[in-house]
Amino acid sequence: MQVPLLDLTQQYTQFKDELLPDLASLCASQQFILGPKVAELEEKVAAYCGAAGALGVSSGSDAIIVALMAEGIGQGDEVITSSYTFFATAGAIARVGARPVFVDIDPRTFNLDVNKLEAALTPRTKAIIPVHLFGQPADLDPILKLAETRNLIVIEDACQAIGAEYKGKRVGALGDYGCLSFFPSKNLGAFGDAGMVLCRDQAKVERLRILRNHGMFPQYHHQIVGGNFRLDALQAVVLLHKLPLLDGWSSARQANFAFYNERLANINGLVTPWIAPETTRHIGNQYVIRIANGRRDAVMAYLKANGIGCAIYYPIALHCQECFQYLGYRPEDLPESLKAASETLALPVYPELTSEQKEYVASTLLQALKQA
Question: What's the predicted TM-score (pTM) here?
Answer without folding.
Answer: 0.96
